[in-house]
Amino acid sequence: MASDPFSVVAEPQRRRILERLRAGEATVGELVEHLELPQPAVSKHLRVLREAGFVTCEVAGQQRIYRLDAAPFRQLEGWLTPYLRLWDHHLDALARHLDRKDPSP
């Protein structure tokens, strides 16, 4: 089931999980400890993130090791890029305006 990536990252606890995984892979137990959430809640959020493609899971014995997958982030970036360019354009115009108004000594 493909989820809208914006809906997936809209949930604050999922964003916290993604932020933690940005530092490197982690087991469910490490995420529970880091986030101070109950294990069932962390597992539920990881399932949503996995189904949406934000994380991958590797089974190593009794542990599941999670890591980020870049593909959904590229989709988010693709949608955001035109807006970032718009802001860059406005900030550049503001900088030019301020430079013209600057009474340099």
Mean pLDDT: 88
Low-confidence spans:
none
Strand content: 5-15%
Query: How many alpha or pi helices?
Result: 5
Helical coverage, percent range = 55-70%
Describe the structure.
It is built from five helices and three strands. With 105 residues, it is of the alpha+beta class. It has a three-stranded antiparallel β-sheet. The longest helix has 31 residues, at 71-101. The termini are far apart. The relative contact order is 0.14.
Which labels suit this protein?
single chain; 105 residues; alpha+beta; 3-stranded antiparallel β-sheet; 5 helices; 3 strands; 13% strand; elongated
Topology:
Layout: H1 5-10, H2 12-22, E1 26-27, H3 28-35, H4 39-51, E2 55-60, E3 63-68, H5 71-101
Antiparallel strand pairs: 1-3, 2-3
How would you sum up this structure in a few lines?
The protein is of the alpha+beta class and 105 residues long.
